[in-house]
Specification:
125 residues; globular; 20% helix; six-stranded antiparallel β-sheet; three-stranded antiparallel β-sheet; alpha+beta
Length: 125
């Protein structure tokens, strides 16, 4: 499993893209998607909602369990992935591409975001 080098990662298994015009994309990692199993429902934050680093902002439900979705940064949600709401399996099939979850205008960052290599080591241990 390969974690894209250009992303940063939380210990709660979310990824964060580099900000473009102050907006970053958030999703869950392939490691998390595999651990969850087949995702059958996603509850995403609403556009305009304020999210806080390290706090729950949604849920992912799979055939195995329900898992909280945590925001890796402080900010305002500016877009949610409607395709994932319609077809939650995108989280499993393309977690770093079409399976992204929401976009956030970043106002603050979580200090302990990991590089791709650090996240790979974290999940290996």
């Amino acid at each position: 499993m390969s974690n894209p080098q250009e992303f940063r990662y939380s210990k709660e298994h979310e990824w964060l893209s580099a900000a473009a015009d102050g907006v970053s994309t958030v999703g869950i990692t392939e490691h998390a998607a595999n651990a969850l199993g087949d995702v059958v429902f996603v509850q995403l934050p609403e556009v305009g909602a304020t999210v806080t680093a390290g706090e729950s902002c949604g849920e992912l439900e799979s055939t195995k369990s329900v898992s909280e979705l945590y925001s890796p940064v402080d900010g305002e949600v500016v877009e949610v992935n409607q395709d994932v709401a319609v077809d939650p399996s995108l989280v499993n099939s393309a977690p770093f591409e079409d399976g992204w979850l929401f976009k956030v205008r970043v106002t603050g960052e979580q200090a302990e975001l990991l590089s791709a290599d650090e996240y790979t080591a974290y999940t290996a241990g």
